[in-house]
Amino acid sequence: MSEQAVKTGQSVSELRCIGCCRIALPDRFRCEHCRDLLEIVFPGWDEQEPAGLNAEGLKQLWAERQSSFDPANRSGVWRFREILPEITTQEIITIKEGNTPVYELAHCAKSAGVQQLFAKHQGMNPTGSFKDTGMTVAASFARQAGYRWVACASTGNTSASMAAYAARGGLHSLVLIPEGKISWSKLSQSLDYGAITCQLKTDFDGCVRVLNEVVQKMPVYLLNSVNPYRIEGQKAVAFELLEQFGWEPPDHIIVPGGNLANSSAIGKALREMKQLGFISRLPKISVIQAEGANPLIRTIRETGGEKLVPVQAETMATAIRIGNPASWKKALRVIRESEGTVEQVTEIEIALAKAEIGAEGIGCEPASAVTLAGLKKLVKQGFVKANERVVLILTGHALKDAEFTLKFHRGDLFVGTPFESQSEVLQSQQRTPLVLEPNVDAVIHLLRTAEHGHKKD
Ligand code: F0G
Fold first, then answer.
1. Residue 222: beta bridge partners?
2. Is the distance from the beta carbon of residue 157 to the nearest atom of ligand 1 less than 6 Å?
3. Which one of 120, 129, 182 would you pick to mutate in the ligand 1 pocket, going by the greatest count of ligand atoms within 8 A of its CB?
4. Distance (Å, whole) CA 303 – CA 325
5. pLDDT in tens, 90-100
6. Of 32, 126, 195, 213, which is the most buried if we count CB atoms within 10 A?
7. What dihedral do alpha carbons 415, 416, 421, 425 form, nearest 10°?
8. Burial 43-53 (b: 16+ CB within 10 A, else e)
């Protein structure tokens, strides 16, 4: 890999406050004057001819890189390095993230009431979630800036991803997670990849509060999604999606909302793509939250987006069990700019949607399934039209939370919860594991019954 390949004149970036627009030092997270979040900007792009970036030329170059064996070219993030912040080649930590598939979901389309529905599956990343695309950039920056330690508070996916990238890059990592509130598979990943993993007796928002103080007192680089380099890497999903759609934007992109960084990143990418002439219009970006963890919806409905309304979050979709989202202002800007919307969905709706995505042979974790559940509502409201092209961003792999899936199919997911009485609607999707004697006739009998059932469908 040549040094030239990753350092480009165009990717000279600086950190700017989203509130007062002051420029900040490269390893900061909040503005020292107004405490707002920071974002990466590329001053060269404001010129009329954006720093020599030629959209048509880049589309071709990025496509060509897919057949290269250079590690940066194989990465579905660094392949797009001309529009990412520059990192010295030797410091890049990549596990060949990105390059994730788009699947058509024919049955889900039908049940939602649209003609064509696609899923961009970010769960197909190396550690099983979309976090890898941001982590490759932020962890590489940490190494370049000379940090030996990185840390995050997490609902499980960020920590799994951070632990993996830290291990690959020779960095030490510290994970703070809410005790008993994340899935075992995610916890097992951070242990496996060698992070120091602490379960705090609080929720995600409590973990964030503790970690914010730790990083002020210790030379530890924060890899939560307030980190602007993570947002840059997470832009790549939008570049890839557009490439996969022949640079013709879909009408709608639907994203789950937790800490609200992913929707911010996708919106930033599309805004920049439009600015640089890759596309001429923006898809509508809509954010779906769980009803029990809905601070963005409340913020918009109760204050018109003026002031964050934090909530005490509760949902079985533990990845998005977040009540005080850091990136709410960034996400709000994206929703407004793209003329998208927000919606909330119930626990039952999430479980049903997850099973429907599973039944397509694709699957995802519960937090990702809010997208399909939300789409159904947006179609009913007339916000999404039947003939519009819709893309759901599936953020995590089905195996991230196998316990949820098992409980769902065994029929005990909602036992003892306030939703128990409504859970009858799930029966059509439940496929209880069967226990049989090791007997050929019993299996054949079962097959015949199943075949008879399918004929009736
Ligand atoms: N989907 C999954 C699977 C997630 O893990 C997360 C966030 C989200 C959606 C929401 O994305 O926060 O950018 O709005 N997980 C974080 C974590 C918070 O710690 O793993 P967001």
1. 151
2. yes
3. 129
4. 16
5. 999 999 999 99
6. 195
7. -20
8. ebbeeeebbeb
Ligand 1: nearest atom to the Cα of 258 = 14
Note the Cα 205 to chain centre separation in Å: 18
**Which two tokens mark 352?**
């049903």
How many Cβ atoms are within 10 Å of 24's Cβ, its own excluded? 18
pLDDT tens per residue, range 274-300: 999 999 999 999 999 999 999 999 999
Other CB atoms within 10 Å distance of the CB of residue 14: 15
In contact, 76 and 130? CB cutoff 8 Å: no
List 252's β-bridge partners, or say none: 284, 390
Are 287 and 255 in contact by the 8 Å Cβ rule? The answer is: yes
CA of 89 to the centre of ligand 1 (A): 28
Q: Which residues of the chain have pLDDT under 70?
A: 1-9, 47-52, 456-457
pTM of the model: 0.96
Tallying the residues shown for the chain, one arrives at: 457
Amino acid letter for position 132: D
